[in-house]
Recover the amino acids of this structure.
C-alpha cells in the first residue's frame, strides 16, 4: 500500500483463523453409519490443516486420500480381469514357418522397411506392423523365409533381432509420444529432452534443431515402452 509492502503467510493465516472458528462453533458432531466414510457433500466445517499440509499431501502421492474435512477416503481399486484361452487357439498358424518376426534398429528403419526390402529385391507376401519396433514379414514359401533369415549380412543393418515365427509369445511393445510443455528456454537441448524421455522408456526420437521452430511451448519425444507377458 503506497510505499509499504504487505507480506502475508497464507499457511499461518489459515491455521490461526481455523482455530478461532473452531472455538466459535464449538465441537463438531457428525453422525454416520458404522464403517462408512463421508465422501463428497457440502460441509461448512473449516479445515484445520495448514496450506503446507494440503500441498504436501497432494504432491507426495502416497498415503490415503482425504476429503474436505480431513477424513480418509478409500482410493480407486482396480479389479484384475482375465480370460481363460483354450489350448486349441493358434492364431496365425498358417504363417508359422512362412514368416519372420523382426525388431527394427530404430524408428526410421521401421518406417522405411518396405522400401528397404524392395531395394534389396526381396520378394515378400506381406509386411504387418506388430507394435513398438516389431514387424511380421511373411513369405510365399518356407524356403524363402529360411533363406532370408540366414542372410544376416542383408538384414543386420535393419533389425536388432530376427526370428522365425513359430507361434511363440512376443513381448508387448508400443511407441509412445511424450508431449513436453514448459521446458525452460535455456534447457531446450536434445540431451536434456533425451534425459526426460529415458525416465519413461528407450528414446526413439528427439528433435535436433529448434532455432527455426515457430512453437517452442511444446515438444514431442518418442519413446519405446516394453512390457513382457510373462
Amino acid at each position: 500500500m503506497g510505499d509499504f509492502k504487505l507480506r502475508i503467510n497464507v499457511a499461518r493465516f489459515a491455521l490461526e483463523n481455523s482455530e478461532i472458528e473452531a472455538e466459535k462453533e464449538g465441537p463438531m458432531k457428525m453422525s454416520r453409519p458404522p464403517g462408512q466414510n463421508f465422501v463428497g457433500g457440502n460441509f461448512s466445517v473449516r479445515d484445520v490443516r495448514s496450506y503446507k499440509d494440503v500441498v504436501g499431501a497432494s504432491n507426495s502421492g502416497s498415503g490415503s486420500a482425504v476429503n474436505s474435512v480431513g477424513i480418509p477416503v478409500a482410493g480407486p481399486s482396480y479389479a484384475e480381469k482375465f480370460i481363460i484361452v483354450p489350448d486349441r487357439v493358434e492364431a496365425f498358424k498358417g504363417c508359422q514357418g512362412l514368416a519372420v518376426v523382426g525388431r527394427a534398429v530404430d524408428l526410421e528403419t521401421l518406417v522405411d522397411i518396405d522400401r528397404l526390402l524392395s531395394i534389396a529385391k526381396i520378394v515378400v507376401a506381406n509386411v504387418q506392423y506388430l507394435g513398438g519396433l516389431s514387424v511380421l514379414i511373411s513369405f510365399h514359401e518356407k524356403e524363402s523365409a529360411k533363406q532370408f533369415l540366414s542372410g544376416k549380412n542383408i538384414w543386420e543393418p535393419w533389425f536388432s533381432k530376427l526370428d522365425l515365427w513359430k507361434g511363440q509369445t512376443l513381448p508387448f511393445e508400443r511407441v509412445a509420444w511424450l508431449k513436453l510443455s514448459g521446458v525452460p528456454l535455456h534447457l531446450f537441448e536434445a540431451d536434456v529432452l533425451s534425459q526426460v524421455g529415458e525416465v519413461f522408456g528407450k528414446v526413439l526420437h528427439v528433435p535436433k534443431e529448434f532455432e527455426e521452430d515457430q512453437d517452442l511451448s511444446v515438444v514431442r519425444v518418442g519413446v519405446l515402452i516394453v512390457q513382457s507377458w510373462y
Q: What stands out?
A: Residues 10-25 form the longest helix (16 residues). The CA atoms of residues 193 and 206 lie 7 Å apart.
